[in-house]
Amino acid sequence: MNPSANPPAIKMQDVTVCARRDALHPVLTAVNWTVVPGDFWVVAGLQQSGKTDFLMMTAGLLYPQAGSYELFGRETRELGEADLAERLRVAYVFEHGQLFSQLTIAENIALPLRYRYDLEATEAVRETLGLLELLELTPFAEAMPASVSRDWLKRAALARALVMRPRVLLCDHPLNGLGARHGQWWRRFLDQLWRGHEYLGGQPLTVVVTAEDPVPWQHPERRIARLHDGQFLPLGTWADAARSADPAVGEWLAATPATTL
Amino acid sequence: MQKSLGKIFERANVDFLRSIPQPKSFTDGLGRKLFVFLLSLQGIGAFALITLGVMAGKRRVAVKVMQPRIRQEIRRSGVALLPMFFVMSLGLGFLVVGQAVAALAKVGAMNYLGSTMVIVVVRELGPLLTAMLLLARVGTAHVIELGTARAMGEVEVLETMGIDPVHYLIVPRVIGMMAAMFALTVYLVLGALASGYLCAFMQNVPLGPADYCQQLAAALSPLDFVFLVLKTLLLGFVIAILTCYHGLAQPLRLEEVSQVTVRAVTQGVVIPILIDGGFIVLYLLT
């Protein structure tokens, strides 16, 4: 079998991740990580451990300061304007949603479609009606972001990320600040996307989420990585992590809040 | 890692120079300020070239998204400011003619009223006053809006969606500012020339409307029209680039937005005056 025919979705080798606000300040070094299409990764670490910088670099918002980062077999440094379609296979959901305040929820979700395919606003919004319904956002379609609660804004940001039908979904702290019902919805919906949702033609979506507390994401088929002391440690499945020879990993898993409950 | 020459002039270096303690010697301090200013100019120049490249290269990209945004910017920068410019043009005409009549009457040179109006209003005060008003009313809004958008991560949002932030955020503002600068200068100049005559009439200056128009026509040369167009478009472009650069070109925190706004306004006052000085040299040379 030709290995390049089915390359990893993400492959990082000796990557150095720099801070978003200071391109000369490395937050993670020697990152080696391979994400196979259809993986579900939970990247966990304490506050200020570099989760958001790492995820932004993975989304192509920051260049790796050193090392090689390949996306579906292509070096990201070589991706130019002409390779926009390649880059759009990776979608990013920001921690606070970051919707544009001057656009309605529906317009926000439709914006990537409008820009990419040069559509009129009404035409693009019409294209997103199914997605709005799927994410239960129809009642908020005409609302401005300022008048919608944070729970729904995050969901609208997820809809905006999905509108271009990506192959990889990166979610920065998706459960932060959510009520219990919304948190449950997110876990269930991301699980459906990961297993292959009808909206994406049944094709499994590669999902990466960041979290301070990894336990709500615990699942035998999911994988976990830890960010600690400027290092990225891919631990494998939860069972692999539990068997880790590193006592610090065992201590960390035992000390996470939900585990101690 | 070896720094490239381009990296040496990055904003980080400007900020580093600003952050280290002030030198004790006045001349060293002055030298540093000049150095920082030149580094800023270098960054602004690079940003201007990038914007021009995007304007030319993406003129057919997402037309249905960009056209309403450009119309909105023209409305905001130009149409919405018309009432203020009407009042300003009345004031400018009255001020210039009020002073000129008093001075010219002393030396019996009332036939130079038209020339005075052309030199003061058409060549100098019209474009410069428009630039300052646009900087105050629209330029500051650009810095604050873009700085806040930068601080809130909206630029990164655009990038993840495959939308070029320069195309989506900067190009409409630049086009809107250039169009507004040109149109508002023309309205200001016409209004000031008309109100100038009104002022002269109220001061019983023995000058008929036809004579006044004749004086204006005699004082105007084709070069005045060419320079007026060039100067207004250039000033509009520069103010838009300056304000957008300070708002967008570097990652910001919310608390830094006020600082960059002050910096942008300061440079927005100094640089147009330098450009105006350049046009005076051009007038003298031609």
Please characterize this protein's 3D structure.
The complex is a heterodimer of chains A (261) and B (286). With 261 residues, chain A is α/β, with parallel strands linked by helices. Chain A has a domain at 90-165. Chain A has helices at 51-58, 84-87, 105-117, 121-127, 129-134, 150-162, 180-196, 238-242, 247-255, 257-260, and strands at 10-18, 26-35, 40-45, 66-71, 74-75, 90-93, 168-171, 206-211, 223-228, 231-237. In chain A, the strands form two sheets. Chain A has a six-stranded mixed beta sheet with strand order 6-7-8-3-9-10, sandwiched between helices. A four-stranded antiparallel beta sheet of chain A has the order 2-1-4-5, covered by helices on one side. Chain A is globular. The model of chain A has no long low-confidence stretch (mean pLDDT 89). Chain B is mainly α and 286 residues long. Chain B has one domain (62-285). Chain B contains eleven helices and no strands. In chain B, α6 packs across α9, α6 (113-151) runs antiparallel to α11 and α8 crosses α10 (222-248). Mean pLDDT of chain B is 88; it is low at 1-9. The A-B interface holds A 20-24, 56, 59-61, 65-66, 84, 87-88, 90-92, 94, 96, 98, 100, 111-112, 114-116, 118-121, 160-161, 164 and B 1, 12, 61-65, 68, 152-154, 156-157, 159-163, 168, 251, 253.
